[in-house]
Amino acid sequence: xxxxxGFVDDYLAYLLARASHLISSEFHAVVEASGLSLMEWRxxxxxxxxxxxxxxxxxxxxxxxxxxxxxxxxxxAEAGWVKRIDAPHDxxxxxxxxxxxxxxxxxxxxxxxxxxxTQIMKDIGPDQVxxxxxxxxxxxxxxx
Length: 144
Description:
- The chain is mainly alpha-helical.
- The chain contains six helices and three strands.
- It has helices at about 10-35, 40-45, 55-60, 65-80, 100-125, 125-144, and strands spanning about 55, 80-85, 90-100.
- A three-stranded antiparallel beta sheet has the order 1-3-2.
């Protein structure tokens, strides 16, 4: 096995994807054990603490295509976890928010996600995590 670094060993996009995969996969089992799919979790977590988001905003946040999120939101509305209303400024646009049942469903997962993040902070330190978050927010802001 070669000790010479390969291209991906220092490639930003790979490092971001790899770190995301490793950190997220640790929490996926918790989400699935709760009875939610990963996409349902992402939608519910994205809506937590928000009054409402458009389907387009949700698609952007959860990194999925809008038609996929539209179908998912429909299924989640049938389950009683979210509700859709017409946007007041544009009747062609739907706004999505968590229902009380959705809030109850996601609340324990949000606490577990925070605990998971705390464990990650222990591994590398809160100062480094804070700096990393700021750097990633900057990177997102300039690329969005």
